[in-house]
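User: For this week's homework, look closely at the record that follows, marking any run of repeated tokens, and judge whether sequence predicts the tokens.
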Amino acid sequence: MGFRRRVRRRALVVGAVGGAAVAHHAATRAGQQQDDDQAAADDGQDQTQYAPPPADPADEIEHLAQLHASGALTDEEFTAAKANILGT
């Protein structure tokens, strides 16, 4: 009778420890899966994002004019930036 009791005790101990190991492994795998899913979602977001539309040259020149009027740009800087926007 003592032998059966030891066998059952070992089965319970191994089962409890083994069950804990399985539960830990499952939780670890689930965490890794979530990380993988998040990384895949991040990658998917990068692929589906659209570039902003190109700025309207008139708006850019107006902004440059405001900077020039406020004194942030010199005449030469304003002329060079305006020529760059217009592509000349």
User: Anything to note?
Assistant: The chain is about 85% helix and 0% strand. The mean pLDDT is 75.
